[in-house]
C-alpha cells in the first residue's frame, strides 16, 4: 500500500469499520455463532474491541453503549428480534473452534 499519512489511514480504517458494522446490521440472518465458527469473531467481539479502544483513551463507554453502537439497537432488542437457538452443528463447530484457540 502506498505511504499515506496517519490521519488519512485512520479515516480509511474508520470508514472500513463503519461499513463492516453497517453490513452486519443488514445481515441479521447471520448469527454470531456462525461468525465465530467461520472467522473467530462476532458482533460482540467488535463491541468489546470498541469498548477497549475507548477505555484506552479514557473515554466513558459502557458495554451496553458499545453493543448498541455495533448492533444499531439495544442488544436485548437485537437478540429478541434476530437471534435464534444455536443448532447442534453450530454448537459443535463453536466448541471445536474454541478448542483450537479462536
Task: Note the topology.
Blueprint (H helix, E strand, L loop, with lengths): L5 H21 L5 H8 L3 H14 L6 H9 L3 H8 L5 H12 L3
Helix pairs in contact: 2-6, 3-4
Q: Would you kindly provide a written description of the structure presented here, covering whatever features stand out?
A:
By secondary structure, this protein is mostly helical. The chain has one domain: SMc04008-like fold. The protein is built from 6 helices and no strands. It has helices spanning 6-26, 32-39, 43-56, 63-71, 75-82, 88-99. α3 (43-56) crosses α4 (63-71). It starts with 5 loop residues before the first helix and ends with a helix. Residues 79-102 are annotated as: Disordered. This is DUF1244 domain-containing protein. It comes from Methylobacterium longum. Residues 85-95 have a biased composition (Polar residues).
Percentage of β-strand residues: under 5%
CATH superfamily: SMc04008-like
Could you tell me the CATH topology label.
SMc04008-like fold
Helical stretch tally? 6
Order of helices and strands: HHHHHH
Strand segment count: 0
Q: Helix proportion of residues, in percent?
A: over 70%
Terminal Cα separation, in Å? 28 Å
Biggest sheet statistics: none
CATH class: Mainly Alpha
InterPro entries: SMc04008-like_domain (IPR023163), SMc04008-like_sf (IPR036810)
Organism: Methylobacterium longum
Domain SMc04008-like: 30-95
Pfam families: DUF1244
Amino acid at each position: 500500500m502506498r505511504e499515506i499519512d496517519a490521519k488519512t489511514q485512520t479515516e480509511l480504517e474508520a470508514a472500513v469499520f463503519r461499513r463492516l458494522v453497517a453490513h452486519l446490521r443488514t445481515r441479521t440472518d447471520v448469527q454470531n455463532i456462525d461468525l465465530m465458527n467461520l472467522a473467530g469473531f462476532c458482533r460482540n467481539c467488535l463491541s468489546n474491541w470498541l469498548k477497549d479502544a475507548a477505555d484506552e483513551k479514557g473515554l466513558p463507554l459502557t458495554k451496553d453503549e458499545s453493543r448498541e453502537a455495533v448492533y444499531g439497537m439495544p442488544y436485548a432488542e437485537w437478540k429478541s428480534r434476530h437471534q435464534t437457538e444455536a443448532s447442534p452443528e453450530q454448537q459443535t463447530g463453536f466448541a471445536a473452534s474454541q478448542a483450537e484457540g479462536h
